[in-house]
C-alpha cells in the first residue's frame, strides 16, 4: 500500500469517488455498449447486477461495489470509450434537430421544398410535397399529427444519420 501512501486521504477519497461515478456511467449503458467496453468479467457482472437491482439501498450498495471494483481497473480506456459513446449521442441529437428544423421549414415555407430537393437527393418529390401539404392541413384543422410524423420519417429516410466513426459529418446546419 506504499504507492497510495504518497496520496493524502482527501486525494484517495477523490479518486474513489471518481471511480464510483465512472462505474455509475457504466451502469447506465445498454448491454450492447457494455459488451464493447472490454470490462473484466467481475466488473461486468457487478455492473449487470446493478442494472437489475431495483431497491434504492441495494442499488446504492451495488454501485459502491462497482466503484470498488473500478479501483482495480485501468480507467483511461473506459473513459475514452465513454467519451466516444457520448459523442455519438451528441451527433445523433444534432441530426434529429436538423430533421426537425427541415420539417418546420418545409411546413412554414412552401418554397423551401425546392431548396431541400437541391441539397438532398429526393427520389419521390411528389410524395414529399403531398406530405407537406397534408401536414399543413392537419395543423390548421387541429387534427392528430399523423402526416406531420410521416413527414419526419420521410426526412429521416432522405437525410442520412451521422457516421459513428471518429469522422463527424456535418449535414449543413444553417437551415433555421
Q: Quick gist of this model?
A:
It is built from eight helices and no strands.
Map the helices and strands:
Elements: H1 9-27, H2 31-36, H3 41-52, H4 56-70, H5 75-108, H6 112-119, H7 125-141, H8 146-158
Describe the structure.
This protein is 70% helix and 0% strand. The chain has 176 residues and is mainly α. The chain has two domains: 3-73, Orthogonal Bundle (Diphtheria Toxin Repressor, domain 2); 91-158, Diphtheria Toxin Repressor, domain 2. The protein starts with 8 loop residues before the first helix and ends in an 18-residue tail after the last helix.
Give structural attributes:
Diphtheria Toxin Repressor, domain 2; single chain; elongated; 176 residues; disordered C terminus; mainly alpha
* Number of discrete domains: 2
* Helical content class: over 70%
Give the biggest sheet: none
Global mean pLDDT: 85
Q: N- to C-terminal separation?
A: 59 Å
Oligomeric description of these chains: single chain
State the name of the first-level CATH class of the largest domain: Mainly Alpha
Number of helices: 8
CATH superfamily of the largest domain: PSPTO4464-like domains
User: What's the architecture of the largest domain, going by CATH?
Assistant: Orthogonal Bundle
Amino acid at each position: 500500500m506504499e504507492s497510495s501512501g504518497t496520496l493524502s486521504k482527501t486525494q484517495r477519497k477523490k479518486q474513489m469517488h471518481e471511480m464510483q461515478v465512472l462505474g455509475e456511467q457504466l451502469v447506465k449503458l445498454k448491454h450492447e455498449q457494455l459488451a464493447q467496453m472490454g470490462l473484466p468479467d467481475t466488473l461486468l457482472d457487478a455492473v449487470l447486477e446493478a442494472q437489475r437491482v431495483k431497491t434504492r439501498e441495494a442499488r446504492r450498495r451495488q454501485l459502491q461495489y462497482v466503484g470498488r471494483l473500478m479501483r482495480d481497473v485501468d480507467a483511461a480506456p473506459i473513459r475514452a470509450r465513454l467519451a466516444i459513446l457520448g459523442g455519438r449521442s451528441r451527433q445523433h441529437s444534432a441530426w434529429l434537430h436538423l430533421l426537425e428544423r427541415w420539417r418546420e421549414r418545409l411546413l412554414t415555407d412552401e418554397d423551401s421544398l425546392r431548396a431541400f430537393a437541391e441539397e438532398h437527393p429526393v427520389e419521390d418529390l411528389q410524395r414529399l410535397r403531398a406530405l407537406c401539404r397534408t401536414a399543413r392541413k392537419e395543423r390548421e384543422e387541429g387534427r392528430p399529427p399523423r402526416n406531420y410524423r410521416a413527414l419526419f420519417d420521410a426526412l429521416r429516410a432522405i437525410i442520412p444519420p451521422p457516421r459513428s466513426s471518429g469522422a463527424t459529418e456535418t449535414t449543413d446546419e444553417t437551415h433555421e
